[in-house]
Amino acid sequence: MIKIQRLFLLLAFNITAYCTVFINQEGYLTSSEKFVFSTSGADSFYICDAANGQIKFRGDLTSRTISDEMTGLTLSKGSFSSFNETGRYYISTKDGEKSYEFTISDIVYENVYKASLKGFYYWRCGSLLPGTHAGVYYHTACHTTDGFYHTSTGLSGFRLVTGGWHDAGDYGKYIVNAGVTVGTMLLAYELFPDRFYNDDLNIPESGNCIPDLLDENKYEIDWFLKMQNTDGGVFFKVTKNNFESFIMPNNDSGMRNIYTVSSTATGDFASVLAKASRIYSAFDSSFSSKCLSAAELAWSYLEVHSSIVPTGGFKNPSDTFTGGYGDSDDRDERLWAACELFLTTGKETYHNYFKSHYNEAEIFTGAMGWGNVRSLALLTYLLSNNPNTDSSIKNTLKAALKTYCDKLVSRRNSSGFHLTLISNEFNWGCNSDVLNKAILLIAEYQLTADMNYYNTALDQLNYILGCNAHNISFVTGTGTNSVMHPHHRPSEADKITAPVPGLLAGGPNKYLSDDVLKARFNSSTPPALCYVDVMESYASNEVAINWNSPLVFVTGFFKGVNKPSGLGTLQQIIPSRIELEQNFPNPFNGSTVIRFHLPAEEDIKINIYDSLGNLVHTKDLDFCRSGENFYTWNTNDNTGNEPATGIYFYQVIGRTYTASKKMILLK
Question: Which one of 178, 614, 652, 660 has the lowest number of neighbouring Cβ atoms within 10 Å?
Fold first, then answer.
């Protein structure tokens, strides 16, 4: 039986160096759960030092899953969660099968995070990518004449809409898909700024004391602003009539069209620009104001056009065959816009819209995506620390999120590879759905501190990085056996063997939506097997910006999870009895006042950390009175030196309660 199973796998996957031991090829956090999966039939496994083969740990392979529903495989599972020694290893089973090498480290996901975020730099359109930043993937500026109004707009002539990111494996630019992309990454920063602080990705803006995640997303937001019409409506996309051939972007000539205004694009635009106004206010007040004005103008357009525009949703004109991103329901985009505008402005007109419409469809029945930003709107509202949010609505959202996440945990527990997808979810781009589900699980973990949600979220990342039936890391340039032939024009046209790194492939597609998949699989193939690392398989091996954004979120969250910040769980979500006033987002220079309120007289300790979790300053305050108290920090560290510009976290510690918030030192 085992030999037959191996033969089937070899034929199905065409993997040159096939092995029967499945691990996360990047590795594991020292204190996390760690599992190995195997089809070898052995009953035990060994962790071996990669440098000398020395056995460091022995474990049993048990918990057999017979004919796993999603893969058809019979899998054994072994735990090495108790093995916490940092290093580089491989796993060998009792019958001699070996895994790919992996690392155990507290910072094991740092490089995956940086690569996935740097991937957006390689997607930049309209600017030179020099070798100093792009390495061997450099190219001259592309698409510098974007774009010309398509006749379907009712307008004619040229409009400057250069910049932004290419959408996927092609060179089009689409507001709808970019909306959920930017929204996801800005949410990551808003919730966990201490984990997305990196300013060292070697993009042109690196080193400017602004997190590179914000710099990279601003490049896209600047393009958004060019796509807004004078009445507030937002044009849908910029593409040619047909997809380009497989050439480098700077060699792609010909007219690129601007397509008609749509309400889905306008709603996504309003959402992203409102959120951007809130987040970038700490770094660039002028840009923040510009974003808010544009967002409110977009909302005005939506108010005037209360029904979806165009009627029935955007559809390609008869002469156009590029991405349609068809969506006949714009209620979720309007809801998201109302949510973000309320949280940024505090205006009740936006809040009233949200309160009136948040429950007109089912709540948290799936993860977010370009066609479902409702979940993103609801999650943003639920996790907001805005004191004027409706507590009863939050309780409703909290209960619904828990119900959905409990369902995901149950799926994980019955899955051979600890996956949360069910059969009909193995569709185009399902790997992004895996990670978007992980985001919801991370949120539920932050709300409850229940490790079941944390572990299930981390299992989804393990799947992406190698714990899957293909024994492949779905992220280019990550792991020993990673995607080599993505459906991505620059990776194919640049004549470089290795593809552009940091890009997430779409993953298995049971619906066999391209000719390559139809030739290799059929309706009887288990859904998780319907993937092939072939460039022509656009339905399973394309890359896309909206697929990379949840990868940035999840790897960014876990890359910092073991860093000793002393901050505990997200204090904005789980409040303490100490009431601590927020200094963020207003930057300060020289000194700042930390104000806090106590329920009773007690001794207090003030700790201040930098964004890496290092303790910068500490102060003991004796006999603080009940009610309002304050402490002035003169921006000196414990050695008397003045810290550098950046994000800092201040923590007020009492006998039984602790509160933490963030602030920005800007010299």
Answer: 614
- Pairing outcome for strands 44-49 and 35-38: unpaired
Annotated catalytic residue 542: yes
Q: What letter represents residue 378's amino acid?
A: L
Q: Is the pLDDT of residue 656 over 70?
A: no
* Single-letter amino acid, residue 6: R
Which is the catalytic residue, given 194, 296, 533, 610? 533
Last residue of a domain, one of 352, 371, 389: 389
Query: At 126, which amino acid appears?
Result: G
The answer, yes or no, to whether residue 565 has pLDDT greater than 60, is no
Q: Crossing angle of helices 430-448/391-414, nearest 10°?
A: 120
Q: Roughly how many angstroms between the first and final C-alpha of the chain, as a whole number?
A: 68
The Cα-based distances of 111 to 199, 451, 475, 477, 506 in angstroms read: 14, 25, 12, 10, 20
Q: Are 71 and 117 in contact (CB under 8 A)?
A: no
List 170, 215, 244, 330, catalytic entry? 170
- The pLDDT of residue 584 is 53
Active site residue 597: no
Q: What is the pLDDT of residue 4?
A: 38
Q: Which two tokens stand for residue 381?
A: 């509202």
Whether 494 is a known active-site residue: answer no
Statement to judge: residues 96 and 29 lie in one domain? yes
Query: Which residues are CB-neighbours of 245 under 8 A, at least 6 positions away?
Result: none
pLDDT of residue 580: 57
Q: What is the mean pLDDT of the chain?
A: 91
Active-site choice (133, 150, 487, 617): 487
Give how far Cα 601 sits from Cα of 12, 578, 653, 654, Å: 69, 12, 13, 10
Residue 423, judged by CB atoms within 10 A of its CB (0-12, 13-18, 19+), counts as: exposed
Q: Active-site residue among 470, 542, 610, 617? A: 542
Domain count, the chain: 3
CB contact burial 190-229 (16+ within 10 A = b; e otherwise): bbbbbbbbbbebebbbbeeebbbbbbbbbbbbebbbbbbb
Does the annotation mark 170 as catalytic? Answer: yes
Tokens of 249: 């972007």
The CATH number for 93's domain is 2.60.40.10
The rounded distance, in Å, linking the Cα atoms of 86 and 564 is: 17
Could you give the CA distance from residue 458 to residue 460 in angstroms, rounded to a whole number? 5
Give the pLDDT band (50/70/90) at residue 574: very low
Give pLDDT tens digits for 511-563: 999 999 999 999 999 999 999 999 999 999 999 999 999 999 999 999 975 43
| Amino acid at the residue 559 | K
Domain that holds residue 275: 109-389
Distance between CA atoms of residues 556 and 563, nearest Å: 12
**The amino acid at 461:** L
Looking at the whole model, is its pTM more than 0.90? no
CA distance readout (Å), 99 to 39, 75, 81, 467, 583:
12, 15, 17, 11, 49
Q: Compute and round to an integer the Cα radius of gyration of the chain.
A: 25
For residue 489, give both structure tokens.
């024009």
Which element (helix H / strand E) includes 339? helix 331-345
The reply to whether 97 and 246 lie within a common domain is no
Using the 3D structure, point to which of 389, 409, 435 is the last residue of a domain: 389
Check: CB of residue 580 under 8 Å from CB of residue 649: no
Q: How far apart are alpha carbons 117 and 211 in whole angstroms?
A: 11
Distance CA 628, CA 597 (A): 4
- Taking alpha carbons only, the member of 185, 279, 212, 190 closest to residue 550 is 185
